[in-house]
Amino acid sequence: MSCNTLTGSTKDCGPNVKGIKAIYIADLLDVSTTTVVAGVVTAITMSATSPAGLFYKYEFRKTSGSNYTEDQVDPSVGLDGWAQVVTLILNKREIDTRNEIAVLAEGFRDLVFIIQDNNDNYWYFGAANGLNLTATTGGSESANYTMTFTGEETYQAYKFTYSLLAAII
Fold this sequence. Notes:
Elements: E1 20-27, E2 31-37, E3 40-46, E4 56-59, E5 65-74, E6 79-91, H1 95-105, E7 111-117, E8 122-125, E9 132-139, E10 144-153, E11 158-160, H2 162-168
Antiparallel strand pairs: 1-4, 1-7, 2-3, 5-6, 6-10, 7-8, 8-11, 9-10
């Protein structure tokens, strides 16, 4: 297998703000097809049997959520994939929040995420295999819930556009 040619990168002097502004979550089973060109989702088709408003929006306080991808390489076995991890903090321990977490976790549900970061970039996580809720903690000191979703993908998270998001929510 031949490798792609390196092209370099220029220094970006613009501001870069960390954290998540909003997340849109849907069941992977409700996504029929995803078309990706050069790392950007250019089309997404939802299942015909899926309800309207399929991606559910979650909003957060500043710096109360994070996401990252981590290269998982092991040349000895030919492994080259990406761990995708999303951590969310939902403020206030309330019964509605508790019940929502139970729905997100049931049956080891495979989920896809569209993440709007604080730079107004959108990212698509869990495209092929989905992410699963792997840890939830709730503490009385902070009175919140912290949820961690993880998944294994062949590629890093894809870029997503707001115009495409507006068409499916």
